[in-house]
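Example record

Each entry pairs one chain with its bound ligand, zinc ion.
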Amino acid sequence: MTIVSPSLLASDFANLQSEVEMINSSNADWFHVDVMDGNFVPNISFGLPSVKAVAKHAQKPLDVHLMINNPDQYIKAFKDAGAAFLTVHYEACTHLHRTIQAIKAEGMKAGVALNPHTPVHLLEDIIQDLDLVLIMSVNPGFGGQKFITEAVEKTRKLKDLIVRKNANTLIEIDGGVNDETGKLLVDAGADALVAGSFVFKSSDPKKTIDTLKTL
Ligand code: DX5
Ligand code: ZN
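Structure tokens for the complex follow.
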């Protein structure tokens, strides 16, 4: 079954606890938490206190997606805030290997996100160290954007790389995921789907989660 990680960015922030409890009682696997700094991406979402508040009620792992520059300086803080997966952007890390080791040293699973223009082959020499690769199928910064179809081919390429290197890395896709794009991605090798608008703006979010799980 596909791993489903609903993105809280599309939830009702004024009712965050009930949104978290809705996900707790659903068949979703993780909570996708989008952290933006208004610098790496042209938007600001929420920061450490909000992540902590979510962690207090969440009964599933927090899949934290850092869209920030200088992530190294916040690794321990996100561990303390309750992150299980910590994903940094390839484009924001000059010393990616060091960053990944630092995330693992804190006892978290380490992920790398690729912007739409960043090719998969750049991960050739680090793939075996990664627990997760997050392929962005929109430009990061906002929910509700249109899916960039090249992400499907990228998923295939990443799957090939993982198999060739005998790595144990999960493939997660983020941006514009719905039942149609999700199906293409799962067929191409995706293990996990992030979905914001498709889940939270639907009339029956739990049923929508089930649809994604069985793609
Ligand atoms: C975008 C975020 C996504 C976003 C996805 O920068 O990384 O996680 O919430 O939202 P949808 O699913 O609406 O495209
Ligand atoms: Zn995200």
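The pocket of D-xylitol-5-phosphate (ligand 1) is lined by residues 7, 9-10, 32, 34, 65, 138, 140-145, 174-177, 194-198 (CB under 6 Å).
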